[in-house]
Amino acid sequence: MPLASSIRKYLYAARVFSLPCSIFPIIVGFLISEKVQRSSHEVIILFFIGSSVLLVHVASNYFNTYYDFQNKIDDEEHCIDDTLVKKVLHENEVYNAAFICLALAMTFFGIGVTLVGNAYVLPYIIFFGAIFFGINYTGGYQLKYNCLGELVIFIAFGPIIATFIYSCLSNGSSSLLVLVASCPLGLAAASLVYANNVRDSGHDLKCGVRTIANQIGLNNALKMYSFLLILPYIQVAGFFMLYPMYSPLLLLSILTPVTLYFAIAPHYQQATNSINTIFEKTLINYHLFSSFYTILIYYSVE
Questions:
Q1: Hey, CA dihedral for 204, 265, 16, 123, is it positive or negative?
Q2: Which residues of 188-217 are buried (b: 16+ CB within 10 A; e: fewer)?
Q3: Sign of torsion over alpha carbons 207, 213, 218, 222
């Protein structure tokens, strides 16, 4: 197949639209490291470390597509990525692409820690732990199929990535500040998975996939969906109360109600009326919230 066409197909299968879920915690980990450590880091180090995160993310997406298709979970009506359903790529091509991305991720990670100049244990533990989660999300232990999808996404796209970046740039140390600051992003990312599970709850149940949404019933699932959308904002308020010295509370008090009104309330109302588009609406909310929150971190943390 022509190179340009092949690249487009692999990018399509990579679910590029999901990469902000890694990019936002990368930025938050970097910002907190810069301001807490009060030092400037080489951009080249951030490039290699950040790229390793994105490559693990893409590899995980490839694995997810492969195993969902292998386990007959995906069909034309119930899938985020229809690469294999519509035969855009062959199964082996997707599976091999996942391992190529992992190999590249390890290479970029190796270059990044070499540039840092010292070997620290914590970044290695987090990096290979993230790979474990990526493979076992739908393969291996099949965490997603056993009501653990939201928990894995919360941990991965909140504390894990932000702490990984912070640790790599801060002499292998960890910080309660970065852990607490990353939780709202993790919750916002988990709401994406939950929205997808709400939409596919009936189909998942028929396929033997247990999710929180199909275990508690549609009505309760929608109530929990509403709570999940609001919870990151509650955590933002809690974060700035825990660390008041970092908080322009006036900005928070002005922007949070406005964002809640324009971003959250309409999405819940529309999602209740149109389950089929709940994921797309939640994705919009994720970008709105995460952009607002990252800007707030930039201007708040001294």
A1: negative
A2: bbbbbbbbbbbbbbebbeebebbbbbbeee
A3: negative
Q: Give the dihedral of Cα atoms 114, 117, 119, 122; nearest 10 deg.
A: -90
Which amino acid is located at 73 in the chain?
I
Q: Which of 239, 248, 247 is nearest to 176 (CA)?
A: 239
Q: Which of 228, 95, 94, 204 is nearest to 144 (CA)?
A: 204
Q: What whole-number distance in Å separates Cα of residue 87 and Cα of residue 90?
A: 6
Condensed to tens digits (0 to 9), the pLDDT of residues 76-130 reads: 877 888 999 999 999 999 999 999 999 999 999 999 999 988 778 999 999 999 9
- Listed as own residue / partner, the contacts of 98-107 with beta carbons closer than 8 Å and 24 or more positions apart are 98/59, 98/60, 98/62, 98/63, 98/66, 99/59, 101/55, 101/56, 101/58, 101/59, 101/62, 102/55, 102/56, 102/59, 102/131, 104/55, 105/51, 105/52, 105/53, 105/55, 105/56, 105/59, 105/131, 106/52
pLDDT at residue 189 is higher than 90 = yes
Q: Which residues lie below 8 Å from residue 266, measured CB to CB, with a gap of 6+? A: none
3-class state of residue 143 by DSSP: helix
